[in-house]
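Dear support,

I submitted the protein below through the web form. The confirmation email said the job was done, but the results page showed an empty box. After a refresh the structure appeared. I'm attaching both so you can tell me whether what I see now is the final result or a partial one.
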Amino acid sequence: MNTQLVVETQSTRPQISIDSTPWIHLMRFADYAKIYVTAGRGGDGSIHFRREKYVPKGGPDGGDGGKGGSIVLKGNPQLNTLLDLRYRKFIKAKPGKHGAGARKSGKQGENIVLEVPLGTLVKDAESSQQIGEIIHENQTVVIAEGGDGGLGNWHFRSATHQAPQKAQEGRPGEERVVELELKLLADVGLVGFPNAGKSTLLSVLSDAKPKIASYPFTTIEPNLGVALLSDYRSFVIADIPGIIEGAHEGKGLGLQFLRHIERNQCLLFVISSESNIAEEYQVLLDELTSYEPSLLSLPRVLAITKMDLLGDESLDQPLPEDPQCEVVLCSSVTNQGLDELKEALWGRLKELAPSDDEPWRERPEDDADPSTDMPS
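What the results page shows now:
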């Protein structure tokens, strides 16, 4: 009997693309991370006496210990996720070197700089106290301060104590558990039910390329886009996963992504013309209230999408009776009402001036140094 040996080579094996694996795609975005940070301990001071030929009674000359390394967050506008820190749970900085003779100070421990996206909020996990917030490029926030180095015996000399036999030990660095929470910085936040046409609308209002499909919850991570208008005007739009009734109870994707519209200046409600517009609008308002009542104080615009599906017919249903909400009929397919929608959003944004509670709206001064918080 003849048998044929089939050798499977690398070229005959099926190639599996990592990027096409669904669970890998789900892990590309992360807006929360919890890390354990330990700053470096300061170096000990030195107990040393000067011993030099022809120099009698040299006296104490022990140097100070070096400061321990700190752990610092730094803003990077090129980043949009905290995914790297999800897999870097324990971070420990190096200690400072001990002091030496001839009043030589020990070398300082090297700082660990963690780059994070703009809009990252950091707080202590145990006390829930806010440590800082990264809102500008190259801005730094120290989340764990390195310990100070101990003093050498040179500092303890006196007329009555000319040969001190003591020096200070270095102080331990800060050790804590911190939580990082990313809140995307955008001017307009899209709010709507799944399959309301939010991603499609974002793709025609800006150059963003979000995933678009005909099934619910196509958007599983926030997307950002920049809408351009005439006269060099522009604003940033954030699209978050769809909200359904009962989201505040954990249904659907829940309300975990609503943190990304907390900093928006304006909310754009997106509802399909095929839906019960007044009912869905009220459900969305109720869900926002369940998450954060202050969101209802933001200016809002209602975009009724998919008007092309009605053909020559007009919209024959009552609209929400909300004097604070401007209604725009539009279609992402025929571009109907898109310019009007942009102008309506720009008008609402123009009404608002940056306040002291929104420092991310202000540009840092040209002569300001955002790295002044960096420990030396």
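Response: this is the final, complete result; the empty box was a page-load delay. The two ends are 80 Å apart (CA to CA).
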